[in-house]
Amino acid sequence: MNHSLYLSAVVVAAGLAACDKPTVVAVPSPSPSPSTVVVPAPGPAGPAGATGAMGATGRPGDTAVIVVPPASGAGK
Length: 76
Known about the structure:
21% helix, flat, 0% strand, single chain, mainly alpha, 76 residues
């Protein structure tokens, strides 16, 4: 039984090695001819915006605590 298993493995390996494998040849595609690409250039800068008054500064150390109540039925 062992000999037939080894013999069949050798026959399968030889059969697979004898298969004709096509050679893959990579054909380079022709390079595209250079073309002119029109890129829009930025226009002149616009007028400066109006300046406004500075906002009030917050009090240092103040924090906001937000307590989110649990959804109804969450503890059941």
